[in-house]
Specification:
The protein is α/β, with parallel strands linked by helices. It is about 40% helix and about 20% strand. The protein binds S-adenosylmethionine.
Length: about 250
C-alpha cells in the first residue's frame, strides 16, 4: 500500500485497513487464533532487531503498511528454502520485510530495494545497521518501475535474481510482473503482497468501498486472474496477512 492510500479514498467510508497494525493483520476470522499463531510460532523466533523496528513502525502514522510478523517469517523461510542470494524488493517503507530479507540472505547475498521515500527507509536504516546486515542492502530511492527498467538496461541483470518481493503501488503489479519475469531467473520466485486486499476481492461489486479501495481491489482482482492464467509461472495463493501470492518462474 502506498502512503497516498488512506487519504486518497475520499468520502466517509473508512479505509478497509484502518485500525490495522502488526497485532491484527490477518484474514483469520478469530483474533484469538491469530494471537495464538503469533505467540506460539512466530514471535518467539522474531529477532530482537526485527521486533524493535516493528514496534517503532507500529507507532508511525502509516504503520499499517508494515508487513506482519508471520509474513516476515514466511519470507525468511522462502528465502532460506530456495537458497536465494540475489533478491529484489519493491516497497520498503521502514524496512521490516527488508530487514527480514537481509537477515535471511547469506553473508555475500544482496537485496536491491526500491522505494519512492528515503524518509521512511531512514527510520529503519539504524536497525539494519545494528543488525550487522547493512552490507547486504542496496537501497534505491525512486519509482520502482524506473529502477527495474534501469536494471534491465544492463544485460548482466537479466535472469540474475533469485527472488523478488513486491509490496507497493498495487495498480502497477501487472507491470512489475513483466519486468520481474525478465530479472528473476527460471526457477526463481516472485512474491506479491496484498493479493486479497482485506478480502475485498471476493465481495459483490456493489459493496460500499472508498474510491481507492475500489481501485486497488479491482487492480488486485485483475492481477489474480492474470497470474492464475499465466503459463510462465506456477502460482500459490496464501490467505495469510493480506493475501500473498508466490509465483515460481517456469520459462
Ligand atoms: C506497504 S509499504 C511497504 C511495506 C514494507 N514491505 C514493510 O514490510 O514494512 C509500500 C511502500 O511502497 C512505497 N511506494 C509507493 N509507490 C511506489 C513506487 N511507485 N515505487 C517504489 N515505491 C513505492 C511507499 O513509499 C511505501 O513505503
Amino acid at each position: 500500500m502506498d502512503p497516498g492510500m488512506a487519504t486518497g479514498g475520499g468520502g466517509s467510508i473508512p479505509d478497509v485497513h484502518s485500525n490495522t497494525d502488526s497485532s491484527n493483520k490477518t484474514l483469520l476470522k478469530s483474533q484469538a487464533l491469530y494471537k495464538y499463531v503469533l505467540d506460539t510460532s512466530v514471535l518467539p523466533h522474531e529477532a530482537d532487531c526485527m521486533r524493535e523496528l516493528r514496534l517503532v513502525t507500529d507507532k508511525h502514522e502509516w504503520g499499517f503498511m508494515q508487513s506482519s510478523p508471520d509474513e516476515a517469517q514466511l519470507l525468511r523461510m522462502l528465502l532460506k528454502l530456495t537458497g536465494a542470494r540475489n533478491t529484489l524488493e519493491v516497497g520498503v517503507f521502514t524496512g521490516y520485510s527488508l530487514l527480514a530479507t537481509a537477515l535471511a540472505l547469506p553473508d555475500d547475498g544482496k537485496v536491491i530495494a526500491f522505494d519512492v521515500s528515503r524518509e521512511y527507509y531512514d527510520i529503519g536504516r539504524p536497525f539494519i545497521e545494528k543488525a550487522g546486515v547493512a552490507h547486504k542492502v542496496d537501497f534505491r530511492e525512486g519509482p520502482a518501475l524506473d529502477g527495474l527498467d534501469a536494471l534491465l538496461a544492463d544485460e548482466a541483470n537479466v535472469g540474475a535474481f533469485d527472488f523478488a518481493f513486491v509490496d507497493a503501488d498495487k495498480p502497477n503489479y501487472v507491470k512489475y510482473h513483466e519486468q520481474l519475469l525478465r530479472l528473476v531467473r527460471v526457477g526463481g520466485s516472485i512474491v506479491y503482497d496484498n493479493t486479497l486486499w482485506a478480502g475485498t476481492v471476493a465481495l459483490p461489486p456493489e459493496t460500499p468501498m472508498n474510491d481507492l479501495d475500489r481501485r486497488f481491489s479491482a487492480a488486485i482482482r485483475d492481477l489474480n486472474v492474470r497470474l492464475s492464467k499465466d503459463e510462465r509461472v506456477e502460482v500459490c495463493q496464501l490467505a495469510i496477512a493480506d493475501g500473498i501470492t508466490i509465483c515460481r518462474r517456469l520459462v
